[in-house]
Amino acid sequence: MSSELRYTANTQLEHLHARYTGTGHADLTKYDWITHQHRDTLSSIVGHSPLLSYLAIADGQAIGRTKFEMTERMLQPCGPPPKKDED
Fold it and tell me: What's the rounded Cα separation, in Å, for the pair 83 and 64?
């Protein structure tokens, strides 16, 4: 019985990881996690026009300019990735 529950829990977890990329996994670094969070936030702002308009007005810029800047920021939202140690 417990092996069936474990199998079901693992398949549900795998399904969540496949469906939602932001749920993470054991090998996810802090940089990768925060990059996903920033990209999700920026894409949500770009996708919701009232929020994009609000930010454009607050910055005193055109909506197109704000959208462009946020789209550009999605490339490397947290700067360049940290150097990996060679093992």
Answer: 34
